[in-house]
Design a protein that fits this description.
The complex is a heterodimer.
Chain A lengths: L5 H15 L19 H15 L10 H4 L2 H17 L1
Helix pairs in contact in A: 1-4
Chain B lengths: L10 H17 L3 H7 L4 H9 L18 H14 L1 H20 L2 H13 L4 E4 L15 E5 L2 E11 L7 E8 L2 E8 L5 E5 L12 E11 L3 E2 L5 H38 L1 E2 L2 E2 L4 H29 L5 H26 L11 H11 L6 H10 L1 H9 L3
Helix pairs in contact in B: 1-4, 4-5, 4-7, 5-6, 5-7, 7-8, 7-9, 7-10, 8-9, 9-10, 9-11
Classes of the chains: A mainly alpha, B alpha+beta.
């Protein structure tokens, strides 16, 4: 399994957010769930994006707000999952 | 041109072909009777299980067929064309199976998925309540922890096949958050009351289910997380939306075929109705819109098979368009049949009644419009992909 750098993951995630949020920019440590632009439907779209873009499986136990709340948090989460997959 | 025979179809295509033939040959001719009797015979339910239809969406490691979205869509189209009530069984059963496959623990998957695949357990989805329909977050059913158990109290409305389901996936509030819980219908405190007098899906065997201090193991909680409502709406309802979108294509196709057949035979003013231009207008509209609805569903299925983040919105768009298409097609079909269309000797009155239901279930037409509008800014890019 490919293990991307956190910077790469963060960059691709910001690009995804830009496409879906109509150009709204989100800071790397800004909680997207507190911006008022993200609803429950979009939360599932984030999970789908993460799975298809980075080749990981988001398990039920991974679905904690903390793993997805900011760009940096998501990057850390994804890299961690990839590292586990690569080491398996 | 080569004289060699065409290459054999792959296994998936063969299984789907056999299922389609069975649906057309066995369910379609009896759908009116199922409606009149307000039930899908148990033998039909068993046959749907034995033939693998109920396991279509379930991973093969658990005895299912693991069909992709496109193949599932084809099945749902056929079911929608044959019997909306039979489509309803597949829809809710696959919603619960999808929830377990995606969110369930290893023990839950191993315990339930093989039986769901075989159809020896029939599943129902219990979300709506007397006070919570489109507003799914408004459910009042409570899940209260009690040692190693969870106590369930609440009332669930419009549970499709609730009259015969062995297992329910019940949506309620646990620790203040939305949660899903597996509840066997033979548990103490589960009261099932058949719902009668429905406009459409009359063989859908709906029930109102009262859960009075029902106690189940805490290991029956499915996928409890911070994303409670998102998981349920984005995953479970999304599966249902895809099924119904394709089912509406089938329903519209049924209206079109019934209309062409009737208008080709019916002679008025010395000629078959099909030769009259106002009739041709209605038939042409049905043809074009049914085809458009089918292509939107194909688009959604492609996105689902690619696990694209777009799949939820594309599915919402497909459901929205297909349901409205089915409603218009059924209205036109009944009009084309004249007074005969008002009689239960012809299926078009059933098609119209079922089309009305299609515009309300799995997210009403208005809810789909709200979802679509929320993605207006990203739609231009989305609409050019997967074309």
């Amino acid at each position: 399994m490919t293990v991307n750098s956190e910077a790469d993951i963060a960059g691709r995630y910001r690009e995804f957010l830009g496409r879906f949020l109509g150009g709204i920019e989100v800071g790397e440590e800004e909680n997207i769930f507190q911006t008022g632009v993200v609803n429950s439907l979009f939360a599932m779209q984030i999970i789908l994006f993460v799975e298809s873009e980075f080749g990981i499986a988001v398990e039920s136990e991974d679905m904690e707000i903390a793993n997805f709340s900011t760009v940096n948090a998501l990057a850390r989460f994804v890299r961690g999952k990839q590292a586990i997959g690569a080491g398996a | 041109m080569s004289g060699n025979p065409a290459p054999p179809l792959d296994t998936e295509a063969l299984n789907v072909a056999a299922m389609l033939a069975w649906i057309e040959g066995e369910i379609a001719p009896r759908a009116d009777r199922y409606d009149a009797e307000a039930r899908l015979p148990s033998q039909v339910v068993e046959e749907m299980g034995a033939r693998g239809l109920l396991g279509a969406a379930i991973p093969s490691s658990f005895g299912g067929s693991a069909l992709g979205a496109r193949a599932q869509g084809r099945l749902c189209e056929a079911l929608g064309q044959a019997s909306a009530s039979a489509l309803s069984l597949y829809t809710v059963h696959s919603m619960v199976a999808t929830a377990l496959a995606r969110l369930g623990t290893k023990a839950q998957r191993q315990s339930w998925l093989p039986r769901l695949a075989a159809g020896t357990v029939v599943a129902g989805f219990a979300l709506s309540e007397p006070g919570a329909g489109s507003d799914a977050d408004g459910v009042q059913t409570s899940f209260t922890r009690d040692g190693g158990q969870v106590i369930v109290t609440g009332v669930k409305s419009w549970v499709s096949f609730g009259q015969v389901a062995n297992l329910l996936l019940v949506i309620g509030k646990l620790d203040g958050r939305m949660a899903a819980l597996l509840v066997p219908t033979d548990a103490a405190g589960v009261d099932i009351e058949p719902v009668t007098g429905m406009l459409g899906f009359q063989a859908g065997m709906l029930a109102t289910i009262t859960l009075d201090q029902v106690s189940v193991g805490a290991d029956n909680v499915v996928g409890f997380s911070d994303f409670g409502l998102a998981q349920i709406v984005g995953l479970v309802l999304d599966q249902g939306r895809h099924c119904i979108a394709w089912g509406c294509v089938g329903l519209a196709q049924a209206c079109l075929e019934a209309s062409v057949a009737y208008c080709s035979d019916r002679v008025q003013f010395g000629r078959p109705l099909i030769e009259l231009q106002l009739v041709q207008e209605m038939v042409a509209d049905m043809m074009a819109e049914t085809h458009a609805a089918r292509l939107m569903c194909v688009n959604a299925s492609k996105a689902r098979d690619a696990r694209s983040a777009d799949m939820i919105v594309r599915t919402a768009a497909a459901k929205y368009f297909s349901a409205r298409c089915a409603d218009r097609a059924a209205s036109a079909a009944l009009q084309l049949h004249g007074a005969n269309g008002l009689s239960d000797r012809y299926p078009v009155q059933r098609y119209l009644r079922d089309a009305k239901v299609m515009n309300i279930i799995e997210g009403s037409t208005q809810i789909q419009q709200v979802v679509l509008a929320q993605h207006a800014k990203s739609w231009t890019r989305m609409s050019r992909e997967f074309a």
